Amino acid sequence: MSSSPLGTKMMPSLEASSKMTRSAGLWIVCGAAIGLMFGFGPLFFSVAGVFLKPMAATFGWGRSDVAVLPMFSLIGTTLGAPAVGFLADRLGWSKVVAGSIALLAVSLVALAVAPANHAYFAAVGFLIGFLGSGTTPAGYLGVLPRVFDKRLGMALGFAMIGTGVGGFFAPIAANRLGPMMDWRHWFGASALVVLVLGFVAHRLMFRNLPEQKYFAADARAAASVDPGLTLGEAVRGYRFWLLAIVMFLISSAILGGFVHLAPFVSDRGLGHDVGAQAAGFVGAGLAIARVGLGAVLDRVFAPFVACAAFFVGAVGFAIFLTGAAHVPALIILAALLLGISTGSEGDLIPFLARKYFGNRSFGSIYGCLFGAATLGGAAGPFLYGLAFDRLGSYALVHEVSLVACVVGAAAILLLGRYPAMKAAGE
Predict the structure, then answer these.
(1) Is residue 132 packed enough to be buried (19+ CB in 10 Å), middle (13-18) or exposed (0-12)?
(2) Which residue of 6, 197, 213, 302 is surrounded by the most CB atoms within 10 Å?
(3) pTM for the complete prediction?
(4) 3-state class of 35 per DSSP?
(5) What are the C-alpha distances in Å from 320 to residues 261, 324, 389?
(6) Bridge partners, residue 420, by sequence
(7) Same domain, 159 and 308
(8) Are residues 336 and 286 in the same domain?
């Protein structure tokens, strides 16, 4: 577990080099939080389930026909996240995030006018995920490691609150507004909200950056000043693949367990109210993880934090596998633990990417790791459903998820010490 021989000089962030005021840093974080609150996740993905039945009724389709919309959107995000990072390293984060905001709005309008065509539905779902990737953490959080150093964990944690707040209120708003607007009106209105508030968030972030050269388009200039590895160098090392595989496994296990939490609780005869409370406590766990772990990351070695967070998820699955799964209070506790475990990923991926690979090709590397986690989030619920359909029980898939969390907790420690880095060409 020795440090990697990458050099000894680490170029300071804007925070460390005293080129940014405290108030400017606060506005940058607020901008990221607002952008995440009114981006792809809350305004599309979190409400897709709310409109599943109305969409099916509009076209006379089955629910599985409509379910391809969120499924293909996740596939689009999985591929779009690396593209966002790749383009940001070359065009600058400002241009890529702004372009993604505009293209997501256009894609939502395309959904609002969708005809009864399965191919069109799948294609627009993919485009929403792919073109809107810059409005996910892959876009907004990618800026923060270039700005913060000592307070990076805290900045990431507070920015991620936006996803939690938006994800909580958007489905409620969609449900309450149901009598006044159908799904077409919702997505049409959402396009306007994305465009207006997305650009408010964009200006809050980029107008408060004291040096735009950190986000400029010239890749060769960036390579000459930024320390760290290129994407090609990163993928030739074990750390990149270790992180990608661990994040895929943890995301698959935890999100699969979360999506199927309500039917699992119902199978135990505990009632819909317990399932609803458990889902709410998953959200509480997410909030705790995103703020609490962010602060801890600034003070504690990140792989230790990741190990603890993943082990917490394993404890949640252990509760599901015992007689405790018949006790409402313990089910809610397990849900809280799952929320803490999955909420940690949002902070951990950009933090670990910067610490182990540096800033030189941070966008590309972070985008690929975020894509791996997104792919896991898409695969997990499907695999859970497949396991239940074949076996008539969640027991085996919960066992596999527990093992995945334990293996992930142990494997993350193999990352070793943070490597020292130097600027290219030194």
Answers:
(1) buried
(2) 302
(3) 0.77
(4) helix
(5) 10, 7, 18
(6) 5
(7) no
(8) yes
How long is the chain?
A: 426
Give tens-digit pLDDT for 107-157: 999 999 999 999 999 999 999 999 999 999 889 988 888 788 778 888 888
Pairing label, strands 420-421, 5-6: parallel
Same domain for 289 and 396, yes or no, is yes
pLDDT digits (tens, 9 = 90+) for 233-289: 999 999 999 999 999 999 999 888 877 777 787 777 766 666 666 666 666 777 777
Instruction: Please state the domain count of the chain.
Output: 2
Distance of CA 374 to the CA centre of its chain: 7
In the 8-state DSSP scheme, what is residue 49?
A: T
Residue 9 lies in a domain: no
Closest-CA residue to 65 (of 114, 127, 136, 129)? 114
Contact between 395 and 375 under an 8 Å Cβ cutoff? The reply is no
Amino acid at 208: N
Query: CATH number, domain at 160?
Result: 1.20.1250.20
- How far apart, in Å, are the Cα atoms of 51 and each of 119, 176, 182? 19, 12, 9
Domain that holds residue 127: 20-210
The reply to whether 281 and 198 lie within a common domain is no
Same domain, 50 and 173: yes
The reply to whether 293 and 174 lie within a common domain is no
Which residues does 253 contact at the CB level (< 8 Å), separation at least 6?
313, 317, 380, 400, 401, 404, 405
Q: State phi, psi for 6 to the nearest 5 degrees.
A: -100, -5
